[in-house]
Every structure is written in structure tokens, then in C-alpha cells.
Design a protein that fits this description.
heterodimer, A: mainly alpha, 12 helices, globular, B: about 100 residues, mainly alpha, about 5% strand
Chain lengths: ~240, ~100
């Protein structure tokens, strides 16, 4: 899991590492795509609309929310507003990734932003922090994001054709949470990260009743603030 | 109507992801901002894990078998340092726990 690399990897090696890092997450992503495809058919969308949504929006939780609102007869603006609110945490991923991509041209920034899902962010930020001097690091997010994108489109289509072949009761989506936990654990030896984690976990659970999954961004911001303050506090004591 | 919703929501999601990547054009950010952003992954990913593990059917559920499964998988993660092993141990634990305590 932790390969401390000192030499700079070539673009191709970064791209392949991105695919390799993202591969285990497919256990959780594939059933999610099937469920989305099947659910969208039940909701009454045409296959073209379903495929277009997976390709354009490219965000699992937001797409499910879209279906729920559409089924309830909501108008286009209410649907779009709610889907945006559900995905607002992605702005934090964007801020976190921005310094690594600041020097890149638009033709890179646009596709990288488009591919910035929870799963792709999680796997790539870990590599970026682990390997500071990597000029071709954006190829990692490209590889990891593209694998996710391709599998998301394929499983959406399969879901349309064959339905949710994997029953949701299997709980395979839990694989995504398990992966995120595996990524988090090495950080938690640092006290400010541990404080950020505990704060975010508690806020996420107790703020859950908030609408539009706003508990996630509240927990994220609270955790970031506590981590930051805790780091400053320790810095002062050290001096 | 539905096509409008698909395009607007797609654009909104893209703009959310593009926001800071689009604005920031220099690599050097203030040390305070750098420190704060260093907690994005820990804070947001924890929020996702906590929601997935402690909430079931839209309620806090402390008897969710995912809680002990997460703890067991956490031990596996520390020992193995492998994502694949962590997923395998977590899912097998979850199935065993569900089978033993239905």
C-alpha cells in the first residue's frame, strides 16, 4: 500500500498506477452502477437519457437523488439545485487538488475536474501526498478517473439491460467505505488528523438529518477546522 | 424537461469539481491554507465512512453489523497495509456477522 518512491515516474507509469490503485474499488462501484441503471429504468427514463446522465453528471449519489426527485415530479431547476447540493463536497476536493494542478493548461484542468469523484480523489490525493516530487502526477488521476468512468458507463448500461444483477442486500458498496478507511488509517497516527477524523465522524452522524446530504460538507469543514487548529496549537507548544 | 435537468445538473456538478482547480493558477498558496487543505481527505472521507457505517434506513443504528466489520477490517488494514485485503476482510466479516446475528 505504501511505496515511498523517490524517483519520478513517467506519465505511462503514473497512468497505470492510477488504474491499479482504483481497481479494488470496482467491487463497490460496479454493483452501484447496476443498481443505478436498473432503478433509472424503473423510474421511467429512456436508455439514452440514462446513459447520458451517467456520462454527463458522472456522480453516483447525485444520480440516485436525481431519480428520486424526478419520480416525485420535481421540475428541472429543483432537480439540478438538489443534485448540486448533494455534490457540494466536491468543491473541497477541487480546493485540495488545485495546488497540484495549478501549473497545468486548461486542456488538462477540464478533464481532470470532470473525473474528480470521491473514489478518484481518494486514491490520487493519497499518492500525491505520499510522493511529493512527481511532475507527471496528473496522469495518476487520469488513469484512476478513466477506469472509474469506463466501468460506471458499462455497469449503467448493464443495469439498463439486465437489471440489478447483484442484489443490493449483498452490501458490496461497503467496499468503498472500507477502502476509504484503509486510506485514512496511516494518517491517524498524527494527532491533528486523529482530531479531524473524530470531529468529522461525530458531526457526520449527528448532522445526518440535514437535507441534501449537507451533513457531509458540514462534517468535512468541521473536521478540517479542528485539524487545522489542533496543528497550530501543537506548533505553538513546540516553539 | 428531463434533458434540461440532465444538462443543468451535469454542468453544476462539473463546475463544483472545477471551481478551485479553475481559479488557482499558481502553485504557492499561503501556509495556513496549505495546512487547512491538508485535512480535506481525512475529514471528508471520514464523513462518508461514518455515514455508511453508523446510519441505516436513515437513522443512527449502533447495532449495525457494519460497525464491528469496520473495526475488524481496520485491524486488517493496519497489519496488511493493503486495500484489497482490507476490503476482503471487511466484506467477509460483514457476511459472517449477518449470518451469525441475523
Amino acid at each position: 500500500m505504501t511505496h515511498a518512491l523517490n524517483h519520478a515516474l513517467a506519465p505511462r507509469a503514473q497512468f497505470l498506477l492510477g488504474i491499479k490503485d482504483q481497481a479494488p474499488l470496482m467491487v463497490g462501484v460496479m454493483p452501484f452502477g447496476l443498481i443505478f441503471g436498473a432503478l433509472a429504468v424503473e423510474t421511467g427514463l429512456t436508455p439514452l437519457q440514462i446513459v447520458a446522465m451517467s456520462a454527463i453528471t458522472f456522480g453516483g449519489a447525485g444520480q440516485i437523488v436525481f431519480l428520486q426527485l424526478y419520480a416525485s415530479g420535481a421540475n428541472a431547476f429543483l432537480i439540478s439545485g438538489t443534485v448540486s447540493a448533494v455534490n457540494i463536497r466536491h468543491a473541497l476536493y477541487s480546493a485540495s487538488m488545485a495546488p497540484y494542478f495549478a501549473h497545468l493548461p486548461w486542456r488538462w484542468k477540464i478533464p481532470l475536474a470532470y473525473l474528480l469523484t470521491d473514489e478518484a480523489y481518494a486514491m490520487s490525493i493519497r499518492r500525491f501526498e505520499m510522493m511529493p516530487a512527481q511532475p507527471a502526477r496528473h496522469y495518476h488521476l487520469l488513469g484512476s478517473g478513466l477506469l472509474l468512468w469506463v466501468m460506471w458507463q458499462i455497469t449503467t448500461m448493464l443495469g439498463i439491460v439486465v437489471g440489478a444483477a447483484i442484489p443490493p442486500s449483498l452490501g458490496l458498496e461497503f467496499a468503498i467505505a472500507l477502502t476509504f478507511m484503509a486510506i485514512l488509517i496511516p494518517h491517524l497516527r498524527l494527532i491533528p488528523h486523529l482530531n479531524a477524523c473524530l470531529t468529522s465522524g461525530v458531526v457526520a452522524v449527528f448532522a445526518y438529518p440535514l437535507p441534501w446530504k449537507l451533513s457531509l460538507i458540514c462534517a468535512g469543514l468541521a473536521g478540517m477546522l479542528v485539524g487545522f487548529l489542533s496543528e497550530r496549537q501543537r506548533g505553538k507548544r513546540g516553539r | 424537461m428531463i434533458w434540461l435537468a440532465i444538462f443543468i445538473s451535469g454542468l453544476a456538478v462539473f463546475l463544483t469539481r472545477f471551481s478551485f482547480i479553475g481559479i488557482l493558477n499558481r502553485r504557492d498558496i499561503s501556509p495556513a491554507m496549505k495546512s487547512l487543505l491538508g485535512y480535506v481527505s481525512t475529514a471528508v472521507l471520514t464523513a462518508i465512512v461514518a455515514t455508511e457505517t453508523f446510519i441505516s434506513n436513515h437513522e443512527i443504528d449502533m447495532t449495525n453489523p457494519k460497525i464491528p466489520a469496520l473495526v475488524i477490517a481496520g485491524i486488517a488494514a493496519v497489519l496488511s497495509r493493503s486495500v484489497v485485503i482490507t476490503i476482503a476482510v471487511g466484506l467477509v466479516s460483514l457476511y459472517l456477522l449477518k449470518a451469525i446475528f441475523p
